[in-house]
Design a protein that fits this description.
seven-stranded mixed β-sheet, eight-stranded parallel β-sheet, 34% helix, single chain, Rossmann fold, Molybdenum Cofactor Biosythetic Enzyme, Chain A, 402 residues, 2 domains, alpha/beta
């Protein structure tokens, strides 16, 4: 039985793809439900959605549609990939509604949540989530300098059992470190990798079909419960042209990363000009083309002006249109996108047939090879809280194969 995962955005989906691929599992990521021919030779596959940015009613429809498509595969173990910071709200990106909708559509009765991903600096203890911040320190999630101030789904509750209950996932039985789970639904603490391995073995003996919600720690736990394989390093695929980056994320960390990007030409773009397709919109396309045509790596980033005056989904949609027009006018060797909603919108707009793991930039941000009809593109998708200050220079160097 293949490992199947459904992700609420593309940035997290790419991390789970890389986690499985590095462990020697033949894995691939799709935008939509794949056909039988697409799955030949695969041991794991996933579907990335834009669930993080849509409303509760849309999530219900999405879960029913994906559940119906997955039903013929009858997964014994379905991973619902959510952000490692669990940021979600009752009305936008409701991960509890997505989980329940998928479970209902597939007839899965048993649900578990893995609360942390220690390999990424996410730790769940006594049901409380802590996360490493851009300052290198570990913060309780409701005091995290980035996630407590997220523009759409700020985390104001660190107790994940209470947080998930407010989203509609009630009755979670807390499973402490080193303890075996009893009744479902379960919530597992995870402080270190030994906890992840223990959880994997505990879930493996659960017997019945499972839906497990969590970050890529779910894949790590699943792998720990199975015979070890040699780690797999994808062959290098250096780019054959310049790198174009677009930052829709306006997190404080992304702002710091843009300021530190010494190897890329940088251009700010006001969201108001983006939304109106104003003169500055077309000027930014021309600016990008000029630099890319002469082989210069460059980045266009959205500024903070008017950040709250337009729906995030609309800003993401117009960001996708902007990037598509840049790619249509200039040949690029690699694309780097910052921002979860932005990444989902752009990947869906570009519509690759599939995505493979092609390397790594930093924890949580792999390089992907996006397959199109007759061509490929190296791609990196960065969440707002991922990477260090030199992320963009590092990303360009890795994509160039340096």
């Amino acid at each position: 039985m293949a490992y199947i995962f459904v992700a609420d955005d593309f940035t997290g989906a790419s991390d789970t793809l890389a986690t499985l691929s590095r462990a020697g599992v033949r894995a691939r990521l799709f935008r939509n439900l794949p056909g039988p021919a697409d799955l030949e030779g695969l041991e794991a596959w996933g579907i990335a959605t834009a669930a993080r940015s849509i409303g509760r009613h849309e999530i219900a429809r999405l879960a029913a549609e994906i559940g119906a498509g997955l039903a013929p595969h009858a997964p014994d173990f379905l991973h619902l990939k959510v952000c490692s910071t669990f940021d979600s709200s009752p009305e936008i990106g409701n991960i509890a509604a997505l989980a329940q909708g998928l479970a209902d559509a597939l007839g899965i009765a048993d649900l578990a949540v893995i609360g942390g991903q220690p390999s990424l600096g996410r730790h769940a203890v006594f049901g409380t989530l802590f996360a490493r911040g851009p300052d290198g320190r570990v913060h309780r999630i409701d005091r995290h300098p980035v996630m407590s101030a997220h523009p759409v789904t700020p985390m104001h509750e660190a107790d994940l059992i209470r947080h998930l209950g407010a989203l509609g996932l009630n009755g979670l039985h807390h499973v402490g470190r080193g303890c075996h789970g009893g009744a479902f639904p379960r919530f597992y603490d995870a402080l270190d990798q030994a906890d992840i391995a223990f959880i994997g073995k505990d879930l493996r003996v659960a017997g019945d079909r499972l839906l497990v919600m969590g970050a890529s720690s779910v894949a790590e736990a699943w792998l720990a419960g199975r015979p070890a394989r040699a780690e797999s390093v994808p062959p290098p695929r250096p780019s054959t042209g310049p790198v174009f980056a677009f930052a829709g994320s306006r997190s404080s960390l992304t702002t710091t990363q843009i300021a530190a990007a010494s190897g890329l030409s940088c251009l700010p773009l006001n969201p108001a000009d983006l939304m109106a397709e104003a003169e500055a919109f077309h000027a930014a396309i021309a600016w990008s083309k000029e630099r890319l045509d002469r082989g210069q790596d460059c980045i266009v980033y959205l500024t903070a002006e008017m950040a709250s005056a337009a729906p995030p989904a609309e800003i993401a949609r117009m960001s996708a249109e902007f990037v598509a027009q840049v790619i249509d006018t200039a040949r690029i060797g690699g694309l780097v996108i910052a921002g979860g909603d932005t990444s989902s919108a752009i990947v869906n707009r570009l519509a690759p047939c599939w995505l493979d793991h092609a390397g790594d930039i930093c924890p949580g941000v792999p390089i992907l090879h996006a397959g199109f009809e007759g061509r490929g593109l190296l791609l990196a998708l960065k969440g707002g809280q991922m990477g260090d200050a030199r992320f963009f220079d590092r990303a360009a160097a890795e994509i160039h194969g340096h």
